[in-house]
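Hey L., structure's done. Input below.
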Amino acid sequence: MNKRVKKSIRTVWLHVVVAFLSLAFAFPLLWMLMTSFKTPREYYSMPPKFLPNQFVLFHYKEAFAPGPSIPTSCPRPPTTSRSPPAVESWCPTSSTA
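Output:
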């Protein structure tokens, strides 16, 4: 092989590697974007699908709706054997009695 052919083969391999790495980095971002248009049932479904059955804008309407962005009160912790940490550790507005 002459020098020109070796250089073109190296260039093609370099482009293949760069394309693969670009897809590897872009796929999670595309997955998050597509998930933002899914309903909760769709993003918890198994096996997962890349494209939603129907595109919904609910999450964007909720995110950009006027009002407080932080809840003013915390929910009650569940009373199960696997209960989360004490309310004081995860709810800044709770008062200790």
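The radius of gyration is 24 Å. The chain has a mean pLDDT of 77.

-- N.
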